[in-house]
Known about the structure:
The chain is of the alpha/beta class.
Amino acid sequence: MLQVRDLKVEVGGRLVVHGATFGVRAGEKVGLVGRNGAGKTSMLSVLAGEAPPAGGTALRRGALGFLRQEARPAGSGVDATALSHVLSGRGFDEAAVRIEKLRLAIEENPSDRNVARFSKAEDAFSQAGGYAAEAEVRRIVAGLGLSPDRIDLPVQVLSGGERRRVELARILFAGSDLLLLDEPTNHLDTDASTWLLNFLRSYRGALLVVSHDLALLDEAITRVLHLDEGEVVAYKGTYSQYRAARQRDEVRLAKLAERQAGEIERLASLADSMRGQTVKRARIAKSIDTRVSRLEAVAVTGPAKERRYRVRFPPAPPSGRLVLDVEGLTKSYGGPPVLDDVDLSVERGQRLLVMGLNGAGKTTLLRILAGETTADAGTVHLGHGVSKGYYAQEHEGITRGKDVLTHLREDCALPDQELRGLLGMFGLVGEVAFQDAATLSGGEKTKLSLAQLVAGRHNLLLLDEPTNNLDPPSREAVAEALAAWPGSMVLVSHDATFVESLAPQRVLLLPEGTLDWFSEDMLDLVELA
């Protein structure tokens, strides 16, 4: 289904993949892993044919289903609804419209020709499963956690998480021979992730998935491709087996590299000791130099060890006791209210967790608090000396055509050297600072957005799923930094471990708008809400 030969991938002038050679056959389920910024998302785009390779080839056979990391479907169906968009994955939306037109043609003129055209189209539609298609779509979207009423709404009014689920549903419904999935469990709660896992287990086509969801990688795949420093290394087995094998490789290759370095140093010293003596010894020294060069050419370095980050948020500037006060907040997008008469307050140093199912209005609430969206009714009042920073789930603050360093310059007046140090704290090093921010991977965009929050020196953070797309070391570093930060927060997250580390004091339950004290018993609900 997928055959890759000597593939090279370039991003922002940097070669992030070189010499990758591998294949994925029908029935194989392969996980592509690596740190944020290693080039996984860019590589998937090349494999899907959406970007040209810098070298080599990627050959695909059969129908392709490609889920982008930041999927934002605008709607591909004959009408604007999410249902029509999913049905368009197999062309049933257009087929149904054509059958209806042929039926109307019979009413106007019941000729043998019109009847025959209608009968032929209806038979093809029925045999392809067209009459059962809507029921199948509703089963898939229900499995992915989208409530039944949401699938009938226009795609454009859905939240970012809902639109991503709709796009994933379209890809799964289309029945592709090859699936390339980039972070498919983003925005999925526990039940939806479990449903997806079961779907992938029974999938008979070829699967290549990028994910930081360790449970998905551990249970759904049979092989791992590790991408680091431009090189792809294959490991057989589950994610846990890959981790164990990679640790063994690190130990074995480190010992081999140490022995090789010792031999190179011994021979180089021996050659140096012979120079300047007799002609015969000089010839021997030259021969040893040749041997040293050969050893250096084949010397191993071993796998790069997993990078660790230490992130620090600056002290929160002083503010009044009451940081945020919201009364009667109401918002609608033309239908029933998304938010209805919501009240909340946040005091200095307090952390408020917002919980609710997808579509309950969590992102809408944060966008209103951030000033990105206007409420239909109600008031939002910031306390004395409050400076708010907003982390947007869809990275709306990242602008195409503007490099990474320029994004930080707009948030503070620090010298470029200090800004580069701030980027380095998040692992955004080297020439990445001058790369178009829109070309960053999802994890790198998350890190840039968090770096912007640090640069802004705020005392109120509005965080909408800030751990999405982060690799495990980065997620741990960000959690530790925010847990130690003394400022105020309004947080939306499905990451129970992350929420537990932040220890919120209050919780707002949507869509009811109920404000309560948070308890550890609620952690079981975090991944579900």
